[in-house]
Amino acid sequence: MDEKDGDAKWSTALSSQRTEVRSSPAVVGDLVCAGSQDGGVRAYSTQGGEHKWTAVPSQRFVGGITATENRLYAGSIGEDAALYAIDSDDGSVQWQESLEDGTMAAPAVTEETVFVGGVGSPLRALNTNTGKQRWQFTSVERASFDAAPAVDEASVYVASTDGKLHAISRDTGDRSWMVDVPQQTRSSVAVADGSAFVLDYEGTVRAFATEDGSQQWSVETERPLARADPAVVRDTVYVGAFDGVVYALNVEDGSIRWQYDTGSPAIWGSPVPVNGTVYVGDAEGTVYALAEA
């Protein structure tokens, strides 16, 4: 889509059966890549939409893709599920590592390590170049880590299916702290400026101090939040809710900078701030471009 006027430049079907697309695309160089429930990670030209390659066509991909300079990391779901490291130039698989039942979330990637959870699985840290496991973290509560993790210089932050938020050492896999999220969440975590932001099923946005997990603030919306992720740019947190409203919150205290009612029954996708504009899609298939705070 044209970022100035929203006109469609090109479109392509990721599924021959017209099933919903749950995988967020990733852009690397002049390619846009997305997973398909029909099978495979598919790459298209950003300019004209021409299909360039398909990787791992035998596997289903419903989670997001994480892109680095010349590599994509994507996890599949179902039988023989795995995390794949894919060369963005030609779609060749550089390595793969089994993920038990698979994952529906994008991994977090640093220069040396890929952090990934999964359906009914522990959080694992893998070498970016080889896929060899560095460590894995299994909570005492035996909960799984379905949501995408976030990282800063010291820790990995991830929500578990039993309503906990964990801070885990990037180097050792030891847990630094754990706090309750009163209502369960499968929200991915956003981290910025010493705070970790997470959403819950009851419509509350919470900020926790990354140092010790103390809660800094919480803000309730009118209705439960979408199964989406918060996005942070500079001093603002952007979230979308099931009431069809996009919220821009102050990272310091959670106060509402602005809110925009789309009139839709729900916001399903995560807001994407780019170059002063916040892009968000609603449950009826409309994309909105809103000015940042």
UniProtKB/TrEMBL annotation:
A GO molecular-function annotation: protein serine/threonine kinase activity
Keyword Disulfide bond assigned: no
Statement: the UniProt record of this protein carries the keyword Transferase: yes
Superkingdom assignment: Archaea
Domain (Pyrrolo-quinoline quinone repeat) ranges: 1-55, 123-290
Family annotation (InterPro entries): PQQ_b-propeller_rpt (IPR018391), PQQ_rpt_dom (IPR002372), Quinoprotein_ADH-like_sf (IPR011047), WD40/YVTN_repeat-like_dom_sf (IPR015943)
Keywords, ordered alphabetically: Kinase, Serine/threonine-protein kinase, Transferase
Signal sequence segment: none
Region named Disordered: 1-21
Protein name listed in UniProt: Cell surface protein or serine/threonine protein kinase-related protein
Organism: Haloferax mediterranei (strain ATCC 33500 / DSM 1411 / JCM 8866 / NBRC 14739 / NCIMB 2177 / R-4) (Halobacterium mediterranei)
